[in-house]
Amino acid sequence: MTTLTTPATPPSPPSPPSPASPATTILQISPGPGSWVTVCEEERLTPGRGVAALLPDGRQVAVFRDRSGRTYAIDNRDPFTGAQVLSRGLVGTAEGRPFVASPLLKQRFDLESGRCLDDEEVAVTVYPVRAK
Predict the structure, then answer these.
(1) 3-class SS at 1?
(2) Which of 4, 42, 48, 62 could be cross-linked to 87 through a Cys-Cys bond (beta carbons 3.0 to 4.6 Å apart)?
(3) Contact 71, 129 (CB under 8 A)
């Protein structure tokens, strides 16, 4: 009887190191002087859409990234209805100013100043945003 033997397989060479993954950019919101709260990775924001974030004190913030990549944060509460819905609003521009329109009654809020474009006496809080 003949026995077949196979030569030992040489070890595989080590795999080349994988390229470094791009650094993740974290978005932070300032709910008050000197404090910053991490909200999410910037890449998770879809341009032209909003997301809601919960601050440690229970307030809700609507966070937006426009199609040029700029980020904004405003109070998520619609002052006309009291509903926490501004993060679901439609994003657009009026006279070069970015705004979000409430999904309920359609009032528009300037994303830079918080001012209601449809009622001068109403505004929402604007929060500073930074990327780290």
Answers:
(1) coil
(2) 62
(3) yes
